[in-house]
Amino acid sequence: MMKGTGASPGIALGKVLVIQNEELVVEKKYIESTENEKNRFSDAVEKSKRELSNIRDKAMNEFGPEKAAIFDAHILVLEDPELISKTIDKIEAEKLNAEYSFKEIINQFVSIFESMDNDYMRERAADIRDVSDRVLRNLLGIKVIDLSVLDEEVILVSNDLTPSETATMDKEKVLGFLTNIGGRTSHTAIMARSLEIPAVVGLKTVTQTLKDGDFVVFNGELGEVLINPSVEEIDYYKNLKAKYEEEKKELESLKGQISITIDERKVELAGNIGTPKDVEGLQKNDAEGVGLYRTEFIYMDRDSLPTEEEQFNAYKEVLESINPKPAVIRTLDIGGDKELSYLKFDEEMNPFLGYRAIRLCLDRQDIFKTQLRALLRASIYGNLKIMFPMISSLEELLEAKKVLEKVKKDLTKEGIDFSSDIEVGMMIEVPSAAIASDILAKHVDFFSIGTNDLIQYTTAVDRMNEKIHHLYNPFNPAVLRLIKMVIDNGHKEGIWVGMCGEMAGDKRMIPILLGLGLDEFSMSPISVLPARKLIKSLKYEDMKQFAKEVMNMSSAKEIEELIEKTLL
C-alpha cells in the first residue's frame, strides 16, 4: 500500500496510465545515410497524421465539429509542402539527423508567424509548436499521450498535472489522479475536486512504483492506494464505492433547499470554478452562485495573451449560465507557482512574495485594462461581482479601483453598455490585509478570504513543500484569529464576508466559520451538498459559543481534538 494526501473524495478502481512528461531533447548529429533519415522523418510525419486523424474523429463524435476543427488545422500543418520539403532539403544538404533538421525548420516557421501583425496568424504559431512536438516525440521514440481523447478508462499517474492538462483531458475516461507531489491546496487537488474526480497527491514515488497497465484501487479521502490488489480487496473497494455513490444520491434531496441552520441563520454556499465548463458542476451540485472564478486559466495553455473578445465570451458564458445567481470573478492572479510561457518574469528568490497578481496588473495596465473591459462588457449578462487578488495595502486597492473607473469612463465614451450595479471586492490572503481590514472595509462591497495563501503567509509555510506540509495547518490559532478579525471588521462596515479557500468546504472547519459569522462559503462544487447537510444540522447560537471556545485555545492540536470530540 502507498499512502499520500487525500485530495479529492471518492473511490477509484482501474488501470494505470503513467505520464512521464519527458523533456524533448534534440541533439545535432551528422549522419551517413540521408536516405534513412528522410525515411524516418516521413514515417514520423505519417504516424503523426494518423494519430491526429484518429483524435479528430473521436473529437467529432464526442465534442462536435468545433473541437474537431482544431485537429484538422494540425493535420494541415503536416501537409504543408514547404515545411516538409525544407526539412528534407536540410537533411540532404547538411547531412543532419531528422530531429535536428525538423526542429530548425519549425523554429523558422514559428518566428515568421509570431512576427505577423495579424492576431489569428500569430496564434497559428501555437498550432505549429503542438504539431512539431508530436512529430519530434515520434522521431525520438517517446510515447505520445493525448489526454483530450483517451481510448479507455484510466487512472492518471504523474509527477504532477498542469492546469492545462486537467482542463483539456477527456474527463469521461479519467477515473482518478495519483501524483508524486502536491497537497490538499495544490492546483491538481483543487482541479480534481472541481471535476469530482478522486485523487491522492504527495505520493512521492508513484511514477517510479507504477507502470502502465497496473491495476490500482484507492480512497481519495483517506489517501490510501493499493497496487494490483487481491480479488477480496477489489470486492471490498467496489462495495465501498457503491456505498459512497449511495450517500451521494441521498444528498440529491437537498437540491433546491436553502442553506440554513436549525435556528434560521442563512448562509450562501457558492462554488469555485476555473473555466466556463465548470459551471455545469456547480449547477449539478446546486451551488448558490460562483464564489470564485479563477480567470488565470483563460491565460494558460496558449502562446499569447487572450484577446478582449475571447475573455468577454468566457465571462459572458459564465454570467449567463448562472444568472440570476451571483458570480464573483477574480482578476488575473498569475505569478508564484502560476507562470505563462509568453510572459517572461525575472527570476525571483521568493516568487510567492514577488511580482504577481494585482502587482503585475498594476504594473502591466495594458493587460489589466483589457480584462476589465471584457468583464464590464459581460456584466450586462448577469450578476457580476469583481474581485481583486493579493491586495496588501490601501494604496493598491485604491489604484486598482482607479483603473476600473478609468475603464468605465472609456467604455461610456465609446457608447458600450455595462451594468451600473457591480459590487467590487477584494481577497484577504495576506496578513497585512487582514490586520488592516477595518480600513480596507470602508472601500469595498465585500471581502473574500483566500485561506490557501493566508495560511501560507501567516505561518511562513510553503504549501507545496512536502517536508513542512504538517506545519500548514488551518487550525493554527493565529490563522483563526485573523479570520475572526476580518469577519468582524467587515460586518462593522456593513459589508458581507465570504471565503473561497479550501477551508470553506472542510467539514471540520464549517462549524467554526459559521460561529464566527461567515456569510458566504465558496468551495469545490462536490462539497456543496455535504456542506448544506451539515449546516442544516447545526444551531447558529451553539456554533457561536463553540467558536468562542475555539478562539480561547492555544494550539491547533487542542482545536482539532475538540472538534473530533464534540462534532464528528
Which tags fit this structure?
single chain, 568 residues, alpha/beta, Glucose Oxidase, domain 1, Enzyme I, Chain A, domain 2, TIM Barrel, 3 domains, 8-stranded mixed β-sheet, 8-stranded parallel barrel, 23 helices, 49% helix, 14% strand, globular
Describe the structure.
- This protein has 568 residues and is an alpha/beta fold.
- The chain folds into three domains: 2-20 and 147-250, Glucose Oxidase, domain 1; 34-140, PtsI, HPr-binding domain (Enzyme I, Chain A, domain 2, Orthogonal Bundle); 262-566, TIM Barrel (Alpha-Beta Barrel).
- It has 23 helices and 16 strands.
- The chain has helices at 34-63, 65-78, 81-94, 98-114, 119-140, 163-168, 187-195, 206-209, 231-251, 279-284, 296-299, 308-322, 357-363, 365-378, 394-413, 431-435, 437-440, 451-459, 477-492, 510-516, 528-536, 540-551, 556-566; strands at 2-3, 5-8, 11-19, 154-158, 174-179, 199-201, 215-219, 224-227, 268-273, 290-294, 326-330, 383-388, 423-428, 446-449, 496-499, 520-523.
- An eight-stranded mixed sheet has the order 1-8-7-3-4-5-6-2.
- Helix 15 (394-413) links the parallel strand 12 and strand 13.
- Helix 4 packs antiparallel against helix 5, helix 12 (308-322) packs parallel to helix 14 (365-378) and helix 13 (357-363) crosses helix 14.
- The mean pLDDT is 90.
Q: Give the overall silhouette.
A: globular
The overall strand count is 16
Distance between termini?
27 Å
Q: Helix fraction? A: 40-55%
What is the rounded Rg?
25 Å
Assign the structural class, choosing from mainly alpha, mainly beta, alpha/beta, alpha+beta, or little secondary structure: alpha/beta
Q: Strand order within the widest sheet? A: 1-8-7-3-4-5-6-2
CATH class of the largest domain: Alpha Beta
Strand content: 5-15%
CATH fold annotation of the largest domain: TIM Barrel
CATH superfamily caption of the largest domain:
Phosphoenolpyruvate-binding domains
Number of distinct helices: 23
**Sheet having the most strands:** 8 strands, mixed
